[in-house]
Write a structure and sequence with these properties.
With 730 residues, the protein is an alpha/beta fold. The chain has 20 helices and 31 strands. It binds adenosine-5'-diphosphate and zinc ion (ZN) (2 copies). Adenosine-5'-diphosphate is lined by residues 197-200, 203, 225, 227-233, 382-383, 551, 591-592.
């Protein structure tokens, strides 16, 4: 090696930087500094500086040292990413065919976390010194400080009920001294035996089975329990067991709006709130949680899918609640399934993973039935309440009059529920007022200029909005095509329109729309969820947001406005997804006290999904669905990968996709479909074409795709090629 004499090995290092290249880059280590694999560093990259991590593997010693750039900063107070986490990052990169640097970026989510928080000034009592003159205010201050701890000035003034000048006076007299104290004390630890509920025998048995899995190391267990069966209480015991073993626990939830209620339940069980991790927390808290997780001060995190990449010091359990939920799949950048990657993280570090759902994914159900996962079933509600009684309203026979969306049968049931002082929920998975606006005179339809979708009218905001790119425009006075006025009509209902109908029918009732896009954001949503929980609303109109894990004790009736909505898709997962969504949302009714009812408004009462829901025969539905997948060689019995080509020029993108398809290496095991226009043919001004590769279960599809794409044409002129292993939609 040419430069070996000039440069001992440990003066250069491999660093993963957050760019889409398959390898680590080599940097010089500044004199007097030392790094190990996992050390977090800042390095120059092109014209900027980026955060990266020193990685395993030899740096490239063949590069002329004069051409190497130096690491500009070593984050010496942050623990290096440990070996398990580095293996996990490499594994995720290998599985998703993403760049390891882009995966490590998901670990280094908080730049502020990398330096310790500056200490803040505080005051402390000097032993034995008394003030020259004792006043009532001074006495209160000294009494407040009897515990001997340091206080911030403002905290002390507040606690003692005095003005800051009283404290300044005591400092001047040297009764108190200025000290520096940590910006935030470590959070209090969860108490394992704070308040355990008496578990039902079924819950008890389930909790014991989970405990047993702890001694097996990397065991995965599926809790398949009906809505209200008390799955949360069961996995709380698994968390308690983890804490007993001095390990950290992570709970993944699909929706932030749910965390509020979950946090309170956790507090009731363990006496403290867990740490939260999702996109809505402030940068400061984000940094504290990140550091706390790395130092071990934070014992339990509840978070969105991104919390899977936190640098836990000693993680010992992951729970994936509502494991069937599509929100666990990240679709952009590095497409990955947090549920599947949670299983991988548990496997690498040899700890148990628990998946919980009332309507498990077909994948997890098959894994459990084939014995790869443990299976715990909870067929009854914890309260003993019966599951809701479901019926269909055939919209062909018993539908509403023109211009209305709620059938008389459903309206009657709402009336009865309202009269009894109970809550009713109307579910429609469509935000806004109307999904399509058209001109009655010329037929003009309002389409998004950047996406192949109609604009959705939002009447609260007086706007037409694209739900894919956010484009929005005011509802015009006249038709932009034929200039007629008063000819625009709203077609079909969204939740806002249902709310309008409800207000019309029940002017006295307290109605509430729960939808993620209303002004006020997540804060308002959390408040309103609480209002519903406490019985402060009579009729709730909601999107899929309300279908998820929330507990509304007073809810007795669920009306599904359009049960056919999800079935219309040509997607083979449509049946599974619709069954899950409708079972979940109707399962909100009568969870605690029983007597719940559900109505499905449908034009296809004979559809297998609708029939399975009505007969409450979940097992028959799953068996039929599993057999259909097996027969077609679809996941989980076969493997799929999507290659999506997108670009600003339609012909160019399509041509490239065809070219790529032509050079695919022939392989008996691989079936290549497409290119075809993606389900959404254009998004944000980019045309999208999709190739789908299918292969048998044991086949190494990643290797095939890697070989294919590396030998194929390279994307140019703004084209992008994105690989999605196990796409949600196939
Ligand atoms: P799931 O997550 O299975 O839908 P939850 O854990 O949310 O069910 O429980 C449903 C309801 O039953 C909650 O209100 C919960 O407090 C209550 N519950 C669960 N287990 C018990 C128990 N053993 N004793 C009393 N109440 C329980
Ligand atoms: Zn017109
Ligand atoms: Zn758009």
């Amino acid at each position: 090696m040419l430069f070996d004499d000039l440069k001992p090995k440990d003066t250069i290092a491999s660093v993963l930087v957050p760019v889409a290249v398959p390898v680590a880059y080599t940097y010089k280590v500044p004199a007097g500094q030392s790094v190990v694999p996992g050390t977090i560093v800042r390095v120059p990259l092109g014209t900027r500086e980026v955060i990266g991590a020193v990685w395993d593997g030899e740096p490239d010693a063949a590069i002329d040292p004069n051409k190497l750039k130096s690491i500009s900063h070593v984050y010496g107070t942050t623990p290096p990413l440990d070996k398990d986490l580095r293996r996990f990052v490499d594994w995720v990169a290998g599985w998703t065919l993403g760049a390891p640097g882009m995966v490590v970026r998901m670990v280094l989510r908080s730049e502020e976390a990398l330096e310790p928080e500056a200490p803040v000034p505080g005051v402390r009592r000097i032993e034995g010194v008394e003030p020259e003159r004792m006043t009532p205010a001074r006495r209160r201050v000294l009494e407040t400080m009897e515990d001997g701890f340091a206080w911030t000035k403002s905290g002390l003034a507040h606690a003692a009920g005095v003005s800051a000048s009283v404290i300044d006076g005591l400092v001047q007299q040297e009764v108190l001294e200025i000290v520096s104290m940590p910006a935030a004390p470590p959070p209090p630890r969860p108490q394992i035996d704070y308040a355990q509920k008496d578990l039902t025998p079924a819950q008890q048995a389930a909790a014991e089975k989970l405990s047993e899995s702890f001694d097996k190391g990397a065991a995965v267990t599926l809790i398949d329990g009906v809505t209200g069966s008390g799955k949360t209480e069961v996995y709380f015991e698994a968390i308690a067991e983890t804490l007993r073993r001095d390990k950290q626990a992570l709970v993944l939830l699909p929706e932030i709006a749910l965390t509020e209620q979950f946090l309170r339940r956790f507090e009731q069980r363990f006496g403290v709130y867990p740490a939260e991790w999702h996109s809505e927390i402030t940068p400061k808290n984000r940094a504290r949680v990140w550091r706390g997780v790395a130092s071990g001060d934070v014992r339990v995190v509840i978070g969105a899918r991104s919390s899977l990449f936190l640098p836990f010091k000693e993680l010992g359990l992951i729970i994936v609640d509502e494991e069937h939920d599509a929100a666990f799949k990240q679709d952009d950048r590095v497409p990955y399934s947090a549920r599947d990657m949670a299983v991988v993280r548990g496997h690498i570090s040899r700890f148990p993973v628990v998946l919980a759902s009332a309507t498990p994914s077909i994948e997890s159900r098959v894994n459990a039935e084939q014995g790869r996962y443990g299976l715990v079933e909870l067929p009854d509600r914890a309260s003993g309440a019966a599951l809701p009684d479901l019926s269909a309203i055939d919209m062909r026979l018993d539908g509403p009059e023109q211009g209305r969306w709620l059938a008389p049968g459903l309206v009657g049931a709402i009336k009865e529920t309202y009269a009894n002082g109970d809550q009713a929920l109307l579910f429609l998975n469509r935000r806004g007022y109307a999904p399509l606006t058209l001109c009655r005179t010329c037929g003009h339809r309002f389409q998004c200029p950047h996406c192949s979708t109609w604009l959705v009218e939002h009447r609260f905001q007086k706007k037409l909005v694209c739900h894919h790119c956010g484009h929005n425009e005011r509802v015009p006075e006249s038709c932009p095509s034929c200039q007629s006025t008063n000819t625009l009509v709203a077609c079909g209902p969204g939740v806002e329109r249902i709310a309008e109908e409800v207000s019309d029918l029940f002017p006295q009732a307290r109605t509430l729309v729960l939808s993620s896009d209303l002004p006020g954001g997540p804060e308002r949503l959390k408040r309103e969820m609480k209002v519903v929980e406490e019985g402060g609303a009579d009729i709730i109109i909601g999107t899929q947001l309300v279908a998820k894990g929330h507990n509304f004790p007073k809810l007795k009736l669920v009306g599904v406005v359009d049960a056919d909505l999800g079935l219309a898709h040509g997607d083979p997962r449509a049946a599974e997804k619709t069954f899950q969504l409708l079972a979940q949302v109707t399962g909100r009714a009568g969870r605690v006290a029983g007597g719940g009812k559900g109505f499905l408004q449908t034009y296809s009462a004979d559809h297998p999904v609708i029939k399975a829901l009505l007969s409450n025969d979940k097992h028959a539905f799953y068996q039929a669905e599993i057999e259909a997948r097996r027969a077609a060689g679809l996941p989980p019995f076969g493997r799929l990968a999507a290659v999506v080509i997108s670009g600003p020029d339609r012909n160019f993108a399509e041509g490239f996709a065809r070219q790529l398809a032509r050079v695919a290496p022939p392989d008996q095991a691989v079936t290549l479909l497409g290119p075809a226009e993606a389900a959404l043919a254009m998004v944000r001004g980019r045309y999208r074409f999709r190739l789908l590769a299918m292969a048998p279960k044991q086949y190494d599809l990643q290797s095939y795709i890697r070989g294919w794409l590396s030998s194929g044409p390279k994307p140019t002129k703004g084209l992008r090629v994105q690989i999605d292993i196990d796409p949600q939609h196939f």
